[in-house]
Amino acid sequence: MDNHLFKNIEKKTGVNMQDVFQLANSVQNANFKDEKTVRSIIQRVSQIANKPVSKQLEDKIVSSIVNGNEKMDFGTISKMINKK
Questions:
Q1: How far apart are CA 60 and CA 70, in angstroms?
Q2: Whose CA is closest to 58, among 70, 67, 46?
Q3: Given this model, what pLDDT does residue 45 score?
Q4: Lowest CB count within 10 Å: 36, 40, 42, 76, which one?
Q5: Counts for the chain of helices (H) and strands (E), in that order
Q6: Residue ranges covered by each domain of the chain
Q7: What's the Cα-to-Cα distance from 56 to each of 3, 16, 53, 84, rounded to whole Å?
């Protein structure tokens, strides 16, 4: 892919694209019914996005995903984090 494009995205968002790719690779075969796995992913997304997530919000997101109420993708987690 175009490295220049990723550098521009990093500059505009402050998000390291390498971190995003590593996270994406780590979730490909993750068990989203496992609370510990889901919490780990939420914490990592929060860290990458530089958006702190309260324990209460994390619990809500985990419950929604583990119980199958929400699909597991970056967009869903991002929207839930930004609603805080």
A1: 11
A2: 46
A3: 86
A4: 36
A5: 5, 0
A6: 18-82
A7: 38, 27, 8, 10
> If pLDDT is split at 50, 70 and 90, which confidence band does 78 have?
low
15 CB-contact burial (10 Å; exposed 0-12 / middle 13-18 / buried 19+) = middle
* pLDDT top residue among 3 and 55: 55
Given CA atoms 32, 69, 15, 12 in this order, what sign does their dihedral have?
Answer: positive
Q: Write out pLDDT tens, residues 6-48.
A: 787 778 778 888 888 888 888 888 888 899 998 998 898 888 8
Amino acid at 79: K
